[in-house]
Automatic annotation (TrEMBL):
Family, similarity comment: Belongs to the class-III pyridoxal-phosphate-dependent aminotransferase family. BioA subfamily.
Names of required cofactors: pyridoxal 5'-phosphate
Residues annotated with N6-(pyridoxal phosphate)lysine modification: 290
SUPFAM superfamilies xrefs: PLP-dependent transferases (SSF53383)
A GO term for molecular function: pyridoxal phosphate binding
Binding site for substrate: 155, 290, 325, 420
Protein location: Cytoplasm
Record protein name field: Adenosylmethionine-8-amino-7-oxononanoate aminotransferase
Quaternary context: Homodimer.
Protein residues bound to pyridoxal 5'-phosphate: 120-121, 261, 326-327
Protein's job: Catalyzes the transfer of the alpha-amino group from S-adenosyl-L-methionine (SAM) to 7-keto-8-aminopelargonic acid (KAPA) to form 7,8-diaminopelargonic acid (DAPA). It is the only aminotransferase known to utilize SAM as an amino donor.
């Protein structure tokens, strides 16, 4: 073993001895699973051995313009020469102000106030607290409205509030005693329709159920929270056209606030800057994270309407303040990265240029859809879910112990592609800067990797 190999072996051993990895069954996490990333450039990540991989899920759905994007690197360095951190609790700084102004220029209409935090989970947590407190204390609120409605399968984060709002059964079973109850409507999962119907041609039973639940619970619902257009971590479940718009109409009709969780779908992933734009929907509260800083630094934002904001205005001793704020809320380095990220979107006309890439991705996915164990390929913009099944006829799942999704990603690694599955759904979500040639390669490797194990 040469010096470099020995150093790597030691790193892997130290990593496994010292780090408790997130969302990872450590007992089964072996040295073979540990891939040590040393650097990145554009759409590629490079490991300590100097092997390049396409970053097929944009470093957990965050990276937008590629790694080491010059403008973002420079913005962070320049900010570093001024100050790395200063609090937003009682003080302000220019990057937070400029970033908020720029964000407000592009978010759906009616949203006027930016509340910063550090992760998608906190953005959601804040949205829930905001909606709840608004109902408790605002002139337009109703203190009986203390509950939330959401969709089955939804993932809104891993903190207690966001898990409560979410609909992942496994997490609810594990943490049940710590969670608050919510009203759940069935997600529009057309491939496995919970109402036994098939789209198109169905009667939208999912929307009828959602409306019935809203009608029955409106008096106690502070808000409905939904991922617009695509339920990401649920398995890239793409909502049928018109679904989101109808949900917005129903929320308005029944007097329930609408929280749009665009943590996953925001910043160009669906082909528009925000997914709500596809159906001309304006939520009452918008949760943003992941791509906000271009995939560079932890930054999130919860953006509210003026009506909601005003519900918190009062004399100090009326105690209507929004009681929230973390140490690193609105960190200047992260805000500087976000400003540069938004500038690149505008300067390089990223959204305008994405149509051709999305089309190429659709073409590249076509052969994958006919593989023996591919039940369905779902795509919206740059977001792709490939659902693997043991049997295409019956749609039978693989036994969980088979870990088929995991096997596919290990094959992909061997071929120079980093992806991460959601159970048996293989997810592709490349950075928006990916070229058409790189898209072809991404699809080819995915095809070969699935064929190798399924
Ligand atoms: N909301 C959605 C829709 C997400 O997809 C995620 C993460 O995947 C979150 C919230 C939580 O974000 P974070 O992991 O940054 O806390």
């Amino acid at each position: 073993m040469n010096g470099q190999e020995e150093k790597k072996r030691q790193l892997v051993a130290d990593g496994l001895k010292s780090i408790w990895f997130p969302f990872t069954q450590m007992q089964e996490f072996t040295p073979d699973d540990v891939l040590i990333i040393a650097e990145g450039k554009g759409v590629f990540l490079r490991d300590v051995d100097g092997r390049d991989y396409i970053d097929g899920v944009s470093s957990l759905w965050t990276n937008v313009h590629g790694h080491r994007k010059e403008q973002i690197d420079r913005a962070i360095r320049e900010q570093l020469n001024r100050v790395a951190h200063s609090t937003l609790l009682g003080l302000a700084h220019e990057p937070a102000i400029v970033c908020a102004r720029k964000l407000l220029e592009i978010v759906p209409k009616g949203l006027t106030r930016v509340f910063y935090s550090e992760s998608g989970s906190t953005a959601v947590e804040i949205a829930l607290k905001m909606a709840f407190q608004y109902q408790q204390q605002a002139a337009g609120g109703d203190p009986r409205k203390i509950r939330f409605m959401s969709l089955t399968n939804a993932y809104h984060g891993d903190t207690l509030g966001s898990v409560s709002a979410g609909g992942i059964d496994l997490f609810h079973a594990t943490y049940r005693e710590l969670l608050f109850p919510t009203v759940k409507a069935a997600a529009p999962y057309c491939y496995r329709c919970p109402f036994g119907a098939s789209y198109p041609g169905c009667r939208f039973d999912c929307l009828s159920q959602l409306e019935n639940l809203l009608a029955a619970h409106a008096h106690e619902l502070a808000a409905l929270i939904i991922e617009p257009l695509v339920q990401g971590a649920a398995g890239i479940l793409v909502q049928p056209p018109g679904y989101l718009k109808r949900v917005r109409e129903l929320c308005t009709r029944y007097g329930v606030l609408m929280i749009a969780d665009e943590v996953a779908v925001g910043f160009g992933k669906t082909g528009r800057m925000f997914a709500c734009e596809h159906e001309d929907v304006a939520p009452d509260i918008l949760a943003l994270g992941k791509g906000l800083s271009g995939g560079y630094l932890p930054l999130a934002a919860t953006v509210a309407t003026e009506e909601i904001y005003k519900g918190f205005l009062a004399r100090f001793d009326e105690f209507k303040t929004f009681f929230h704020g973390h140490t690193y809320t609105g960190n200047p380095l992260a805000c500087a990265a976000a400003i540069a990220n938004l500038d690149v979107f505008a300067e390089e006309r990223v959204i305008e240029g994405s149509g051709e890439k999305i089309e190429r991705l659709t073409q590249g996915l076509t052969p994958i859809a006919s593989l023996n164990h591919v039940g369905e390929v779902r795509q919206r913009g740059f977001m792709v879910g490939i659902e693997l099944v043991a049997d295409r006829e019956t749609k039978a799942l693989y036994p969980p112990a088979e870990r088929i999704g995991h096997k596919v990603i290990l094959e992909a690694r061997k071929r120079g592609l980093i992806i991460r599955p959601l159970g048996d759904v293989i997810v592709l979500m490349p950075p928006l800067c990916i070229t058409t040639e790189e898209i072809d390669r991404l699809c080819e490797i995915t095809y070969e990797s699935i064929r190798a194990v399924a």
